[in-house]
Predict the structure of Phage capsid protein.
Amino acid sequence: MQKSLMIGLNERDMEAVIHTYDLKPYYYPTLFPLKETNFLTWKMLEAQSGLKIAADLVSRGATIPRKTRETISRIQGDIPKITISREKNEDELTEYDILVAMSANNPDLKALVEFWAEDTKFCWDGVAARAEWIALQQISLGRVKFSNSNNAAVVTEYDVDYEIPTAQKIGVDTSYTTGTAGKPFTKDFPNALKIGKTLYGATYKAAFMNVDTFEKLTAQEEVYKRCATFIQNVTQTNDAPDLTTVNAYLAKKNEFFRGLQIVLIDQDITIELADGSRTTSNPFDDDVILFSESKLLGNTYWKRPIDAKKLEGGVADKVMYGHTLIKKYSNESPVQEITEGIANLFPAWNLAGRSVLMQVNATSWIKN
């Protein structure tokens, strides 16, 4: 390992650029706010919010009965290490030398900064994209599993299963993908709400789904007729309603839907495997609706990577920003400029055990 080949680059300049990055394009920091931990494990109490436990009437002088905590369980797991690396090879570094010569060795020239900043941004986004993938996969399937089909690194298989009870993984009365006869508002949504209320006293406020699933939902005759105006129904000029219209209908029928609102997940993440092949998709699985008591689903637990330590005699430039470490260095043979993004993090879903997953293209849950 050698010092970076970028002329005039230092950690202060790297920090100035990296601190302009943010996580606004991603859902996970909102659904799972960041929470630093001192260990490479996460532990949390599985939420039991919404239960209104009444006090007891007792005779004066009598012992006060203790309320049970049996419904509160602890969920825990390991925090995985997430890494991404990008290199500039000899050809690219030769082009850089030409840029340097043309700039009269001025390291502040925009073209020179962009040359190395392209890779720091790539690595920052790569770490965030993997965190997003984990978060959205697990809340749509009840588990997240790493294997050779979705992870390029050689790693022991990592599998987190929240073990959502079978009774909370359901299908619909009539599939939304085989026609327009589905009954989201009269049968499916009420069924999910009833399950949550019966099992946990839960009142679901958010129904998460991806955009493709929402399109199938709004294509159902029951949905577009109930969301249409009187004139549209009379003249039969109904179009599929948009999100605002559907949520307005749910709010109008508050006595039935108890404040439930649809939350759309519109995201694309690209996974590149070891052979260079790439697949791009929404990590929130198709044909799934998640019913949750809150839009706040848990926390993203993170720990500062050991790689961030300043080593005596170390030559790598390192900048820690949020949960991500960006590191730059070079190799002598072959000549390479290396940029790495490193994070120890995991978005832990503590509302999983009280939520309902609904599969809209089947009459029962058959996803996993």
